[in-house]
Amino acid sequence: MITAVNRDIMPENWYNVVPDLPEPLAPPRDSKQEISSINLLNKILPREVLKQEFTFRRYEKIPDEVMEQYEQIGRPTPLIRAKNLEKYLDYRGKIFYKYEGATATGSHKINTAIPQAYYAMKEGVKGVTTETGAGQWGSATALAASLYGLPAQIFMVRISFEQKPLRKTVMNLYNGNVVASPSTLTEYGRKILKEHPDTPGTLGIGISEAVEYALDHDYRYMVASVMNVALTHQSVIGQETKKQLELIGEHADVLIGCVGGGSNFGGFTFPFIPDGDETEIIATTADEVPKFSKGDYKYDLVDSAGVLPQMRMYSLGADFVPPTIYAGGLRYHGASPSLSLLINRGRIKSDEVTESQVKEALRIFANTQGVIAAPESGHAIATAINYAKSHKNEGKTIVVNVSGHGMLDLSIFGERQ
Amino acid sequence: MKNLIPYFTLGYPDNTKLCRFLDILPVEKINYIEFGFPSSDPRYDGPVIRKTHSVGNHNFSESVYSKYFDYFYRNRIKMYSLSYYSDIKDRFDEFINYLQVNNFSGIIIPDLIIDYFNDSKSIINELNKREFEYIPFFSPATPDFVIRDIAAITDSWVYYGLQPSTGIEIPYELDYTTERINELLPRREITYGFGIKTDEDIKNLMKNGGSGVAIGTYLVKMIDAGDEEGFIEYIDKMRGVLNE
To answer: Which of residues 126-145 of B touch A (CB under 8 A)?
Structure first.
């Protein structure tokens, strides 16, 4: 049941930033000379998802059926003032966090998994497939598919598959079928395994396998991030945040989020873009994956095999194999084109934090707020803490997006004596 | 009369075969003609037109086409060049001079406001000074303010690409698309292109206020097949649909 209070906070439309960008978004371009990988999207994505990917509509109505499921999985998520953290830091302003870890699957990923599975179901396809890094997206896909009675085939990056067996259990519990990627289920996976038998896998390889699987099995591919449609669906985060701030008479001076492909970050911050340049926006990445400081702003492959169209984005190169870091969701080589454009134009700033900074931030956040955040979200928290320390007396209101909980990532802390 | 604008990449499939199709093109059925000058990187075109650029690059010879440029000019068919700025930026003055000498009316530059956004207004103003038409090229992804700003410094017709690149078929909402551009640019000639092939497409676009259509990818298939009769019939049919 959707309550009146929830209805006041939940937006009726998704917000698409493309019409409000400071310059035209470069269109995708074909990855191969002879065929159109753009046209191929017609066979890979549900029709409505594809339409939304290329739409210039500023607002897209959220179907009633999706609204209903949003409420079922815990939307709206809470916006909480982190008073204990403020006190710990002796911060003279206010710190709020939007807690996407409160959703049923424990992260923001479900916000786009539900509509994509819904549109796939409406088309009558045989099933859905996708890749997953840390397992949050895979969990969201498995649940969303299950809600609409669709089978889900999930390709999980091998290193995460081995390091996070409980994630596999979660996906199985939601009726998802999970394999380590590269796998023997696809031609591309078999090729990679033959050439690099010990590879830890990458999201790029996982995407390639999922796309191939979709084409071969009349499934539809679920877009985790990077593509604009995922960021549009995730705009429920930022729109709710705006409304929640408005209801308590607050205004965000600074927005901080972490970036893997850019979906939680774009969803959280983009609804603030039309309001002007007053709100400072900071995107945090892992020091080990320095896409914004060391990557190039260029057309590059989204997936390793080059099946999907190329996009103009900040990228470390599609063949970039990142270290097997503690935050699997941030290992992706690129970032969404709209976010990349806004970084390139200087509207959004970037920051990089180290593993030790992230772990310390997660400890502080757990000890002050009681929330064990996901390692990915720990990057945003680390940047927020650093920001609060260096702007202690300016009275600014910082809002940080905690994109997920870290209850299945506790192994990163090891044993403490 | 609504505009019918056929597109040809110069030098494709070879100079002789293309000239044959230009010879039989019924000039009384068209208003403008668009010539693609072969690009080394036609990045915003689909695979069919990309192929024509790749082949055209090997074949194109200026001397072959000057008599055709003269022929279309004498028949009052306005000629427009389709050129990527990445190809002409190092010889921009020389290239525009060449077009003007050959009586072209203007130029369409698909990568200008995407890849050279910061320079676009000064380039357009340079073309204005030369009294050479810059045809604004917009797509659904072009932000409203960019459409308004670029339209404000030009007074030619507008080329609106319905798809992210030529010859592909991403689903879109025709009514919403045309309403938007009509609202942004009332009283401006809007010619639609990219992915148009059926009578129904054209009828709907014209019903919603379009001033014409550009046809490219579909013609390539007839040129590839050497289908001269089909080519003439198709142009005739499209003219008929536009006249309805």
So the answer is: 139-144
